[in-house]
Specification:
258 residues, three-stranded antiparallel beta sheet, 71% helix, 3% strand
Amino acid sequence: MLVCNQCNNEQETGKFCGACGGSLQLDGGETAAPSANQAAATTTAQPQTQQTTETIKNGLSEYWNYFLNLIKNPTKAFQLNESHFINGLINIGLFAVAFSLSVYFFMNSLLGFLGESLPFFQVNLSLLFGVLLFIIISTGSALAMTKAGKNQDSFKTFIAQYGGLFAPFTALNVIAVLGGLMGVIALTLIPLTVSLSIAFFFIPVLFVFEKLSVLNNSGQKVYLSLATLILISIGTYIIGEMMVFEFIDELQDSFLFF
């Protein structure tokens, strides 16, 4: 029998008194033991938490090894398959996020002497949306030309391989983030310029040429590769002009000195 410490109410089960809400004790002053269900739930929750933590650690370790291997030899990206689809998306996503953060921190460091600070979410979302749009243009152009060349790889395989090629340039963008935080112009602009120009223009052309070479070494791989560059240039010009003016307008709305 359980007895309430506050009002001496007696009841069969529970941790707290049904009359006043006080804690319950066993007759004789011992603290009530947890119920069988509560003990079982606690016992079950601990292994589940440990298993989840272990799964996350293993996943991060596997991705890190995958990322390092592609930095050492990006050619291995062409050997990836559908099982690396998520990793390819992560590479592209990290590339875009690192780009937006590097530009934001760099602009903030330039404005620091004026005692001003750019709005974090507004600026970063605009930058992130813009770079993702350019990635979609270049990726879509490469996909269209590989399909025009009769390549039969699935979309997941395409993203796994194409995203794998982003690994070295994602690393460059991370370096640019550090440069932006420190306000070092060369450490920010040089990695960004290299990563953006290669990722948006060279990688799609290289990808199309490589995939069509494997498919048919004497096919129209040169013209289709050049057509990829033309598609990207047209899309970049149209979208870029719109995005630049829109971004400048947003900054003008936030800071009158712009």
